[in-house]
Write a structure and sequence with these properties.
binds N6-methyladenosine-5'-monophosphate; 362 residues; alpha/beta; 16 helices; eight-stranded parallel β-sheet
């Protein structure tokens, strides 16, 4: 199936050959990619075809609807629509064989080929208990695939879903801890899921335990304008190493983040398609660039957001209004002037200077 075009594909199309070569030559690190949001459509379609032969009609209708939606390019009216995609995908990856297959396809998509999308991938996924797997089985299956690559190329972050009970979250942290202690390649714990669900005060112990166990912490935070300031401060008190999105941090939140230099995982296409950012020019990346704050450029979910890591970098380089125009000297905004003091190092490479130490940190 042809690649469904999105903002990132348009940005890539707009670049000249030397800009494209530059992007591909950069040693990119993908630090924010959700497994079940990054499965190539061809793999999902194959699994959907096999699934409908063996499952009941109601379930396969649900899957067919979901897959049909994905194939159409997903009319995402807002962030809430996006979360409705996952039941269909989850139906397909709820047995160990398909989970491994999906994981392998995601890893190949990012890491294989003559021009891999990135040099290093920190994949994240939420442990799920299904009729055929325990949460531990789930994480082990994903890790088996991740560990087919050297440690310098791939590792795993265990996600906690905001809708989880405290007990389920505890179980996930224990699994992450146990596997890390066994030498498996779990490097951190994430908090994700419906940005308005759950009470984040209930996870305090879990993040404390994760830190104690030497696991890195990354939290989806302030993803929507409705996330209350108290919740944001509470999450920041868990001392995260990195933050996902951080779109709606208020001044107090920003001051804390700038003080502790928590790296912001920036997902441009995701924010535009979920409509949490109206246009690229308004994106909070500008604020963090101005303040020379560590950021990492990431895809979030390549399938619904129709993107790739080179595509996200293309959005940095492409001329406005499609992109931020960061590499075009004549279009450099005066607000970036303070960032120009490192001689010939292009802006995008500066972003990498930030993301590499962060990779080591988590
Ligand atoms: C918050 C997100 C997300 O974990 O099953 N997820 N959570 N914000 C986002 N950005 C818009 N994108 C994905 O991958 C799918 C799960 O990741 C979370 C959601 O909980 C989704 O169910 P895994 O591999």
């Amino acid at each position: 199936m042809a690649q469904i075009s999105g903002f990132a594909a348009m940005a890539l199309d707009s670049l000249n050959p030397s800009q494209l070569a530059f992007i591909h030559s950069l040693p990119k690190a993908e630090l924010h990619a959700h497994l079940n949001g990054s499965i190539p459509i061809s793999e999902l379609q194959q699994m959907a075809n096999e699934y409908s032969q063996t499952s009941d009609n109601l379930a396969s209708d649900l899957v067919r609807e979901g897959i049909a939606k994905l194939k159409r390019g997903v009319a995402l009216d807002e962030i809430y629509d996006f979360f409705n995609l996952f039941p269909a995908i989850y139906a397909l990856t709820s047995n160990p064989a398909n989970l491994r297959r999906a994981t392998r396809a995601v890893l190949e998509q990012f890491l294989d080929g003559d021009r891999p999308q990135c040099t290093y991938l920190e994949l994240r996924s939420t442990p799920r208990e299904t009729a055929e797997m325990s949460k531990l089985d789930y994480v082990q299956a994903v890790l088996d695939e991740v560990e087919r690559y050297p440690a310098s190329r791939a590792s795993l972050i265990v996600s906690l879903d905001r809708r989880m009970t405290t007990r389920a979250a505890q179980e996930c942290v224990e699994i992450a801890h146990q596997l890390k202690a066994e030498g498996r390649r779990v490097v951190g714990v994430d908090l994700c899921g419906d940005p308005q669900a759950g009470d984040m005060g209930t996870f305090e112990q879990q993040f404390h335990d994760a830190k104690e166990a030497g696991l890195g912490i990354t939290l989806h935070i302030a993803e929507t304008p409705a996330n209350p300031a108290e919740e944001i401060l509470q999450l920041l008190s868990y001392a995260p190493d990195r933050l996902g999105h951080a779109t709606f941090l208020d001044d107090e939140g920003k001051a804390i983040v700038r003080g502790n230099k928590a790296c912001i995982e920036i997902c441009l296409s995701s924010n535009l398609l979920c409509k949490t950012v109206a246009k690229l020019d308004d994106h909070h990346i500008r604020y963090y660039l101005q303040h020379d704050h560590p950021i990492a450029i990431c895809t979030d979910d390549t399938l619904p957001f129709r993107t790739s890591l080179p595509g996200e970098y293309a959005l940095l380089l492409a001329s406005p209004p499609l992109g931020l125009g960061l590499s075009e000297p004549e279009q450099r905004d005066s607000e970036f002037a303070e960032l120009l003091d490192e001689g010939d190092i292009p802006f995008v490479a500066r972003l990498l200077l930030h993301s590499v130490p962060i990779k080591a940190k988590i």
